[in-house]
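<given_protein>
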Amino acid sequence: MNRILIVNVNWIGDTLFSTPFIRAVRDAYPDSYIACLLHPRTKEMLELNPCLNELIIYDEEGVHRSLFGKLKLIVSLKQKKFDVAFLLHRSFTKALIIFLAGIKERIGYPTKRRGMLLTKMVEAPAEELHKVEYFLDIARASGITPKNKSYEFFINDSHKNFIADLLRGSGVSEKDTVVVLCPGGNWDPKRWPKENFARLADSLSKNSGARIVISGAKKDLKLAEEIKGMMKTEPVITAGKTTLKELAALLARSSLVIANDTGPMHLAVAMKAKTIALFGPTSPAVTGPYGAGPYKIVSKNDSCDIPCYDMTCTDNRCMQKIKVEDVLKEAAEMLEVK
């Protein structure tokens, strides 16, 4: 295989889960030209990845939305003369584009009735797997043996320098113990109560002298301010102030990250930061941290079916059962506080 195309998925978290697959392909074909077809919103997840030679944007809501736009993409892919395409994405449309681009070998799961467009169909797993394994099974079906199942994310010195300056401007020195809290979540039932984060932060500050940083996206700023209002100590709020790369640099700089089942939690694991992941309605086996790394999972759910996607749930007992003391115990071990 001289020229390889990886057709990636559309979501940020799943794109991170695809990085062990990308590395496995690179390990198997060290001298090949490897490109990745991806959605614009996931580009930052794979920028600077040394396993890839090229990122090709498929903007299906923008320039490639029309038939003409798709034809332009097909012509462009045809001109690149790829020998094989691995389809991590499940869509019929993407498989059809790859077929029409004349890529001779097309490998993936026969989802969306697209088996006729594939030259090699990968047998679907009998039970739900972690996404890392789901993608790696495509590699295994192609004779590739993964050497490492840890996902990864890449930053450069400019991202590290930005975080150093941001923390310094908030009175945090290079020698300070930094604990980063990620209290957000894309839906409320996954969130540990904000008052618990506040109590946890104050205890960590008192017991370990840690500087507390509350991070997240711009949409998490209100939550961060509410937690700050419940605290006795003064945290640093970086929510809404960082790009994904800069957030990754912050997590890499931290002494410990404590997060719900969210993208930042996985980003912390990718950066090999010490991480405590708090799980309630979601399944650690399917969406938990994966691969090697200094992380721990705290889950106390023993009364509900997992995963649970009941958006009408109001008691949130699966997250309520995780006590501040449970997290403090794990944090003390990871911070090596005596």
